């Protein structure tokens, strides 16, 4: 049995003195999963990319299991991984219209692909200009994984405003932000918050003129936009046919419907990939050769991705793209009839909407009560980007979009009839008490806070958890937390969330 004891309200388990039976293990896993969302339900508009095909799902599970115990840290032991990866990269290259010189790497998520692109761009910058702090210039809608890569590898991110109407990247703003320190430009097709497409051709022209690395983030769109384009959707070119594009990232675990996580980074030139890899022959052990960030890696995701691409083929992905178009249009029509504001002009399967009639955060909670999982977004007040709700539309939503709109209508009516919430004012008041407003935080203030942070957390951490209703874990309804995210400066909220997440995982709540 597992020995358990209580520590500051958390149940702590020590190493089991007696093994569980198979039945006990399955029962415990099912118990832990009882509050999980069902990724196959058609009620998730979040990070679940569901094709709706049980046959595909069963095939992926089998392929993953066949290869999951093969550690491709050493390709001399499991050479099948080389063949599988080559096939996958070749398919990705064909979708992105790459020539024979282009090469790629299979990674285990879009963030890892971005890390490799950032490293290659950074090292290219060092080769050309010597050692100084390089910068990444990108629209404000670019994914935070670039900030993460910059924090790990010593770069600086410069985010510029997007067009306030289209929510697409602004080439003039990008060009103005480029300096001698710029190592990389980034454009997204689409961006995650709103599903709009940055003008890749215009960005690439700037990159060529300024002689800087240009990365196309097609993590969301790489395996769907080419098929939407074949079906007549107005998708502009964004691939290697455009001079100036240095690298492209694309995720099979999104709209190729492979297992999580699976991503690809493509480089226009072999030398670019050399700068992304890690090789070490300086120690007395085996040669370290890491094409990606990770060393030990299961071949399961590679096998599942290979299976998905070959099982679906071009006809299968075109059929899923047709379902996507139908589902997206049904959702958009329903949102317009309910008088929600569509963010930009979505040409991808990602849709976002805002409202001047009801509180978006409360609406998301009301929909959660009906079993729908949405992603509320705080927006950026200073750039006149309002709060919104992000919807990741997938083929399974062709079946559930009608019910979604019906439930959304009821949720909107319920929220509009509810008395005004005090949550927003409470959150704003908390910000005022702290004497902070968004945009006022500078590096010196942040440095002083960080110097005192450990003492603050020891003294006030438990009280903060209690005040935010987090002492027993994450609440189902998130409106209050979302209001806090919106009311406090991001630098402060990031520190608080950092602490809260550690405590939630420590307690297993």
Structural commentary:
- The protein is α/β, with parallel strands linked by helices.
- The protein is 46% helix and 13% strand.
- It contains 16 helices and 15 strands.
- It has helices spanning 22-32, 54-67, 80-95, 110-129, 145-153, 171-177, 200-210, 225-230, 270-276, 300-337, 360-369, 397-417, 423-433, 443-467, 479-487, 490-507, and strands spanning 4-7, 10-13, 103-107, 135-139, 156-160, 182-188, 213-217, 247-250, 263-267, 278-280, 288-290, 341-342, 350-354, 375-377, 388-392.
- The strands form 4 sheets. It has a 7-stranded mixed beta sheet, sandwiched between helices. It has a 4-stranded antiparallel beta sheet with strand order 12-13-15-14, covered by helices on one side. Strands 1-2 form a two-stranded antiparallel ribbon.
- The two termini are 21 Å apart.
Short description:
The protein has 509 residues and is of the alpha/beta class. The chain folds into 3 domains: 4-36, no CATH class; 62-306, Aspartate Aminotransferase, domain 2 (3-Layer(aba) Sandwich), CATH 3.40.640.10; 423-507, no CATH class.
Task: Describe the protein's topology.
Blueprint: E1 4-7, E2 10-13, H1 22-32, H2 54-67, H3 80-95, E3 103-107, H4 110-129, E4 135-139, H5 145-153, E5 156-160, H6 171-177, E6 182-188, H7 200-210, E7 213-217, H8 225-230, E8 247-250, E9 263-267, H9 270-276, E10 278-280, E11 288-290, H10 300-337, E12 341-342, E13 350-354, H11 360-369, E14 375-377, E15 388-392, H12 397-417, H13 423-433, H14 443-467, H15 479-487, H16 490-507
Parallel strand pairs: 4-5, 4-6, 6-7, 7-8
Antiparallel strand pairs: 1-2, 3-9, 8-9, 10-11, 12-13, 13-15, 14-15
Helix pairs in contact: 2-10, 3-10, 4-5, 4-9, 10-12, 11-12, 11-15, 13-15, 14-16
């Amino acid at each position: 049995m597992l020995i358990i004891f209580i520590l500051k309200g958390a149940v702590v388990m020590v190493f089991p003195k007696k093994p569980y039976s198979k039945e006990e293990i399955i029962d415990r896993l099912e118990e832990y999963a009882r509050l999980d969302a069902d990724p196959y339900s058609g009620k998730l508009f979040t990070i679940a990319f569901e094709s709706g095909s049980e046959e595909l799902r069963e095939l992926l599970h089998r392929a993953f299991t066949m290869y999951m115990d093969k550690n491709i840290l050493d390709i001399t032991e499991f050479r099948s991984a080389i063949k599988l990866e080559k096939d996958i990269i070749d398919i990705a290259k064909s979708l992105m219209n790459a020539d024979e010189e282009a090469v790629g790497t299979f990674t285990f998520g879009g963030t890892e692909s971005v890390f490799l692109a950032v490293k290659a761009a950074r090292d290219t910058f060092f080769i050309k200009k010597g050692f100084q702090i390089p910068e990444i210039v990108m629209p404000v809608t670019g994914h935070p994984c670039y900030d993460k890569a910059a924090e790990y590898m010593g770069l600086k991110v410069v985010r510029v405003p997007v067009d306030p109407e289209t929510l697409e990247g602004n080439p003039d703003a990008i060009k103005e932000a480029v300096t001698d320190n710029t190592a990389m430009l980034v454009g997204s097709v689409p961006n995650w918050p709103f599903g709009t497409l940055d003008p890749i051709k215009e960005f690439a022209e700037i990159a060529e003129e300024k002689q800087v690395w240009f990365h196309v983030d097609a993590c969301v769109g790489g395996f769907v936009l080419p098929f939407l384009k074949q079906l007549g959707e107005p998708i502009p070119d964004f691939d290697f046919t455009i001079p100036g594009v240095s690298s492209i990232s694309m995720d099979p675990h999104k709209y190729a419907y492979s297992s999580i996580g699976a991503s690809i980074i493509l480089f226009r030139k072999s030398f670019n990939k050399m700068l992304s890899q890690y090789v070490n022959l300086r120690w007395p052990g085996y040669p370290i050769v890491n094409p990606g960030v990770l060393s030990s890696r299961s071949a399961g995701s590679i096998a599942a991705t290979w299976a998905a691409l070959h099982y679906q083929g071009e006809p299968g992905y075109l059929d899923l793209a047709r379902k996507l178009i139908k589902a997206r249009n049904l959702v958009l029509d329903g949102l317009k009839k309910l008088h929600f504001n569509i963010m930009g002009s979505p040409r991808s399967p990602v849709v976002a909407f805002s409202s001047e009639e009801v509180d978006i955060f409360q609406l998301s909670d009301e929909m959660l009560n009906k079993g729908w999982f949405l992603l509320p977004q705080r927006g950026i007040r200073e750039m006149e980007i309002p709060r919104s709700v992000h919807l990741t539309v997938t083929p399974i939503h062709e079946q559930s979009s009608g019910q979604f709109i019906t439930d959304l209508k009821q949720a909107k009516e319920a929220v509009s009839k509810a008395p005004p919430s005090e949550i927003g004012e409470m959150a704003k008041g908390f910000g005022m008490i702290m004497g902070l407003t968004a945009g006022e935080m500078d590096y010196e203030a942040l440095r002083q806070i960080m110097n005192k942070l450990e003492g603050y957390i020891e003294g006030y951490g438990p009280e903060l958890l209690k005040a935010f209703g987090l002492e027993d874990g994450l609440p189902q309804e998130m409106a209050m937390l979302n209001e806090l995210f919106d009311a406090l400066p991001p630098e402060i909220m990031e520190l608080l969330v950092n602490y809260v997440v550690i405590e939630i995982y420590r307690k297993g709540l």
